[in-house]
Fold this sequence. Notes:
The chain has 258 residues and is an alpha/beta fold. It is built from eleven helices and ten strands. The protein is globular and about 65 Å long.
Amino acid sequence: MYQTIRYEKNEKIGVLTISRPAALNALNSLELSEINAAIAEVEADKELGCLIITGDGKAFVAGADISEMRTMTLTEGREFGRYGAAVMRRIEKLEIPTIAAVNGFALGGGCELAMSCDIILASEKAKFGQPEVGLGITPGFSGTQRLPRRVGTAKAKELIFSGKMINAAQAKEMGLVNEVYAPEALMEGAVAMAQSFVKNAPIAVKYSKACIDRGMQMDIDGAIALENELFAMCFATADQKEGMGAFVEKRAATFENK
Ligand code: CO8
């Protein structure tokens, strides 16, 4: 049983809710280790087709826990940063699609947690920012790396050097957020998007994610070769036969993740 998060599963969609609302879900060591344990559950679950991460209360996550970090030494800071960054990377490397449903403040480590997901959806109440320099630190859970990759270096530098907060509409304008919803419609929107992913052939969705994520780190020729290999591997799956067979026979496909 977790103390600071909830993990629920509804058929092929998992929902991980960060839940320490009295501290605006600020990430302390326990919370990070519980997120890590839930991600291990997700990795082991071969039926799951999409993971949604959201927060309880008025925040998604208002950052790493400042009270815990306040007295850290250089060595402790290095270890806390290393662990948090490893948890974010583990989320990013999940084979299945991930959606951050950002219900409120996504600041510092919270913005970094959202950026470790494939897609960010936001409530009209959401606020994003990397306020670390105002606390005397740099972003430490890979915000200096993922924010420029998402919005470009100039916008990332403006946000990180100023530490300012932006609203959901500004985050969408910048390309950080895919879609903005009324607060009460956010989870419905996230689940609808998740359903639009899990209805498709799971292996083809996973391979598509691998092509995009790995390909973006490669030169274009290597990336095209990777796509060609994973495209070819689809033809060794039962789901390719089923998907194309269903089209030709004018019926709905039933995919088996094989
Ligand atoms: N850490 C600890 N406690 C927090 C945090 C936080 N990040 N954010 C909010 N809280 C607590 C408050 O202390 C308060 O507790 P209490 O009721 O006991 O006083 C409670 O949550 C409610 O917060 P507020 O009363 O402040 O709520 P408001 O609605 O007035 O304000 C804000 C909301 C604007 C979000 C405000 O709480 C705030 O500015 N929070 C801090 C935001 C921030 O600076 N986040 C970045 C933290 S640094 C970080 O994330 C670095 C990540 C990498 C670390 C690498 C380490 C090596």
